[in-house]
Amino acid sequence: MPNVEYRGMNLIVPENDSEWREYVKTAREHKLVMRKCAACGLLRYPPSHGCPWCGDLGWSWQEVSGKGTIHSYEIVVQAIQPGFRDWAPYPVVLVELDEQRGSPTPDEGLRMIANLVKPDFTPEREEHVAIGKRVRVLFQDLSPEIALPQFTLTDEPPQGRVWRLA
Amino acid sequence: MGTLKDRYCVVGVGETEYSRNSGRTTRAMAVEAIRKAMDDAGLGPKDVDGMMSYQGNDSTPSLIVGPDLAIRLNFWMDVVGGGSSTEALIGLAMGAIEVGLCRTVAIFRSMNGYTEVRIGGTGTRAAAPVRGQELAWRPYGMTSAGQNFAPTFMRHMYDYGTTSEQVAHVKVAHSTHASQNPKALHKERVTVEDVLNSRWIVKPLHLLDCCVETDNATCLIVTSAERARDLRQRPIHIMGVAGRVSKPRTDFHFAHGPISRVAGYYAKDIVFPMAGIGPEDVDLTGSYDAFTFTTLLQLEEYGFCKKGEGGAYVSSGSIELGGARPNNTSGGHLCEAYTHGMNLVIENVRQLRGTADDYCPGWAEGKHSYDYSPGKCRQVEDAEIAMNLGWSTPATGSALILRR
Question: Do B254 and A73 touch (CB under 8 A)?
């Protein structure tokens, strides 16, 4: 059963984890995939059994670009997980991917939680974290079977108004 | 089925001491809280035949607690849940009585929320393996409720210009209320500067934006209006209730936008029509304050101010004792105790009875000074209608409207 110790947490992806097993395996190949509904064609995250918009149970994996914009964020100053204490303060970002922005309703999009990291997977400095900044996915290998998608800043111009908590 | 408005009542309330060192089991605390609520209502063991509770693997179930009170149960149900369960269970208790499962229901919550299973997520909760749906957030160091909600709060600041100073006024108001409450864990009045100068937990939340983990048990007793007439206290009527109303995508609340919209957006359309009133008719509120922000977001969503204007509203004085519509007059989760919603309903029941326990010498007989200066009164004058806004996550909430 693929599992890995990461920052004091035991991450487990059993063979019978029908939602996450292939997602994690594909991430280890450094590809970001979303489930695509066979009926309505909409992508969804996190990987779910049925389509949250139409309820259809048919789906396939579709690779996405891994590019997006910071939709919101937080800075964890007091880590809850003991294994994160040496990381704090660290940013957690809500990234809105470029695919399917404003669909199926204007306020929706494909959003993911991750850390905003530098290319060496250390946490990005707080003063560089802001809503509106552009990011791309990176894959942090944790074991021969498990990788975590993370995000890092790009030098693309921001999308919309840029703001951070002063 | 016709409307159930005003056909059920809250007839008894009770709680243990609010502490951070209970030194006893959730069983012992639950029994004390239920016994106190039964005494409050004037009910004996043969008069209570239904029991409900909610928990997160941190309590003692009804089938253990009932016999400790010499109660034989015709109905019991313990559900998994935290915030927003209180109002939902009151609705379910009405239903259980309405269909004849039982006649009178004691609803309890018992938790060593500081000394055993900490609600903030440290200890046993942090040590649990990460699998399934949690892979979407826990590997990134997002575990606790504050960490889970903070991006929602941050986006509200981005969308509407809400400031930390404005939101701090929620803590200031609730601390003022707690200073008049002998039961409150934190009775000291704090200022906006105190909130802003307290250490960061997870930005945009300071320490004083977060509620206080507490050991406690609490109880509310629900029965029909008909039976309520013969009991000890003035019956408090249930006008409307909405239970665990949710946004789409409860599996990942960030998925459905706008993320700064919360479940009250949907719940208001159930609870207000049922009660036949609007927000302007409500005299006081109990908007769940796991964090300062949760109070603000819900007051907006239920229409106590316009969407986006919550920052201005909570810093206007409206939510303070003596203001237009005081919120959490006990001090709430931020100051009195964190109980997963129960104490906020208990407080509103006492307010509607006119017997908020404060430092007025005659509070127990409903004699109040209505002087809200330090060390005096916290009773809202002539309170007729009170509302609770229960919060589970940005995606799920409950609501309850009570009248005297």
Answer: no
| Tally of domains in chain A | 1
- B222 assigned to some structural domain: yes
Stretch B319-347: mean pLDDT: 98
Interface touch A11/B157, C-beta < 8 Å: no
Give A57's pLDDT tier (boundaries 50, 70, 90). Answer: very high
Residue A164 in domain: no
Nearest CA in chain A to B207: A78
Degrees to nearest 5, angle at CA B89 with B85 and B94:
160
Instruction: Report the C-alpha gap between B135 and B394 in whole angstroms.
Output: 20
Q: Is the residue at B255 inside a domain?
A: no
Location of structure tokens 């330090």: B374
Residue B109's nearest CA partner among B222, B243, B217, B221 is B217
> Which of A157, A81, A71 is CA-nearest to residue A114?
A71
The distance from CA A133 to its chain's CA centroid, rounded to whole angstroms, is 15
Q: What is the pTM of this model?
A: 0.97
Number of Cβ within 10 Å of residue A86's Cβ equals 9
Q: What domain range is A145 assigned to? A: 3-153
Residue B337 counted as domain residue: no
**Closest chain B CA to residue A121:** B140
**Residue A127 falls within a domain, yes or no?**
yes
What is the torsion angle, in degrees rounded to the nearest 10, for the CA atoms of residue B70, residue B71, residue B72 and residue B75?
Answer: -160
* Contact present, B165 and B315 (Cβ < 8 Å): yes
B46 touches chain A (CB under 8 A): no
Cα separation, B115 vs B402, in Å, equals 33
Distance (Å) from the alpha carbon of B120 to chain A's nearest alpha carbon = 8
Which residues, 6 or more positions from A38, have their beta carbon under 8 angstroms from its beta carbon?
A: A56, A58, A59, A60
Helix, strand, coil % in chain B, rounded to nearest 5: 35, 20, 45
The pLDDT of B227-246, averaged and rounded, is 98
How many C-beta neighbours within 10 Å does residue B273 have? Answer: 12
CA dihedral B288, B294, B299, B302 (to 10 degrees): -80
- SS3 per-residue string spanning B272-302: HHHHCCCHHHCCEEEECCCEHHHHHHHHHHC
Measured in whole angstroms, how far is the alpha carbon of residue B385 from the centre of its chain?
16
Which residues are registered as beta bridge partners of B193? none
Going by DSSP bridges, is the β-strand pair B284-287/B385-393 parallel, antiparallel, or unpaired? Answer: parallel
CB B329 within 8 Å of CB B378: yes
Is there a domain that residue A160 lies in? no
Dig out the tokens for B85 from the structure: 């369960």
Q: What 3 state SS string does B59-114 have?
A: CCCHHHHHHHCCCCCCEEEEEECECEHHHHHHHHHHHHHHCCCCCEEEEEEEEECC
Cβ A165–B203 below 8 Å, yes or no?
yes
| Cα-based torsion angle of the residue sequence A110, A114, A117, A119 in order, rounded to the nearest 10 degrees | -60
pLDDT, tens digit, 9 for 90 and up, residues A117-166: 999 999 999 999 999 999 999 999 999 999 999 999 999 999 999 999 98
Q: What is the mean pLDDT of residues B150-169?
A: 98
Residues of A within 8 A of B393 (CB-CB) are: none
The answer to whether residue A57 sits within a structural domain is yes
